[in-house]
Amino acid sequence: MRDYVRERIPGIKFIHLKVDYDILLEKSVTRTEKMLAQAGMTLAQFWKFPDPDMTKARAEFGEEYDDE
Questions:
Q1: pLDDT of 2 over the 90 cut
Q2: Are 33 and 43 in contact (CB under 8 A)?
Q3: Contact 47/65 with Cβ under 8 angstroms?
Q4: Which pLDDT belongs to residue 66?
Q5: Over the stretch 15-56, which tens digit does the pLDDT of each residue have?
Q6: Nearest 5°: phi and psi at 30?
Q7: CB 36 within 8 Å of CB 43
Q8: Which residues contact 61 (CB under 8 A, 6 or more apart)?
Q9: The whole model's pTM is what?
Q10: CA-to-CA distance for 6 and 42, rounded, in angstroms?
């Protein structure tokens, strides 16, 4: 993919950022909660949403929402 981008955008520079997993998780949850709040929904409500990704998540992690 980088070669493709380099062909399209000469001189582009790529950087690699290393971030602790706990920080990534915290920021992801915060962004998701904010997005869901704008839609009038909580994480617990979204967990029950009839979406294929959420169905897979419930099958793997359980039907009831848990912050863990």
A1: no
A2: yes
A3: yes
A4: 86
A5: 999 999 999 999 999 999 999 999 999 999 999 999 899 999
A6: -60, -45
A7: yes
A8: none
A9: 0.65
A10: 41
